[in-house]
Amino acid sequence: MSEDLVRNRKALHAYHILETWEAGIALQGTEVKSLREGKGQLQDAFVDISGTELWLKQCHIQPYIFGTYANHDPLRPRKLLLNRAEITRIIAKATRKGFTIVPLAIYLNAKGIIKVKIALAEGKSLGDKREALKERESKREMDRIRKGDRE
Length: 151
Fold this sequence. Notes:
Layout: E1 3-7, H1 9-14, E2 15-25, H2 29-36, E3 40-41, E4 46-50, E5 53-57, E6 60-61, E7 78-81, H3 84-94, E8 99-108, E9 114-123, H4 126-150
């Protein structure tokens, strides 16, 4: 069972998620403490391919409040940790036109280790976004009607 520390809610609205992976992340000590307090943000974050490595960029992790001189830079690039075969597979899929890699969540796995859920995604068109919004609204309305019938 995993506990989400940070979620990228806009990613599901802006992209079609095709495939997901779990990656480790290279963090400093104060970053871990700050994430455990829920002080992270994936709003504008993306995964960058640099040679044969994957880097999480623009992920904002607020400096730890009790950190001293050892505190971290909030927007520093962070290396994603995957095995070589997974990295080559991800890079091969992501380099096709129209695809990108987006972080979906940072969470604690069952062993208490911080992991990042990344996904191969394709951007949604404006019409797709509107259609998803209509479906969500109609589902919400149906739930309201059902709830009203029970009372």
